[in-house]
Description:
The mean pLDDT is 87. 48% of the residues lie in helices and 10% in strands. It has a 4-stranded mixed beta sheet, with no helix packed on it. The protein contains 6 helices and 4 strands, in the order αααβαβαββα. By secondary structure, the chain is of the alpha+beta class. The termini are far apart. β1, α4 (71-80) and β2 (89-91) form a beta-alpha-beta unit. The longest helix has 26 residues, at 22-47. It folds into 2 domains: 2-47; 51-142, Glutaredoxin, CATH 3.40.30.10.
Amino acid sequence: MSELRRKRREEREDPAGSRVNWRKIGIAVGIVIVLAGVYYFIYYKHGHRYDAFAHCLREKQLTMYGAYWCPHCTEQKELFGASFSQVPYVECGIPGQRGETQECKDAGIKRFPTWVFPATAAMPQGDRQERVIPLEELSAKTGCPLP
Length: 147
């Protein structure tokens, strides 16, 4: 029986490391997955915190006209962060050309960014703002709540 014990002990203390410790590997993989999930959740939550606000602007039929080369348009987009993808946006710049798209010409867009507010009971003609508008002001004008 002592021979059997000696063999078992040698198997447990295998210095060559030929036995894989699946428990340690599983714990390590679990920790990595949890940390990746926490990082992604924090990044996503921070980057997309204005999604509901942007969706509300879409429902209110607000439109922003801008150009890819416009620094003020970039400033306006940065206020929304990753949530800007939810904002109704019309690109007026034509890559590789100096002109502007027909849609923007038809809308009478002269400066960038231009926000076009639809007609309402309070503003039967609608409204047009040709500037960077702070999110708080957009919220006040549209009634869309900020987070």
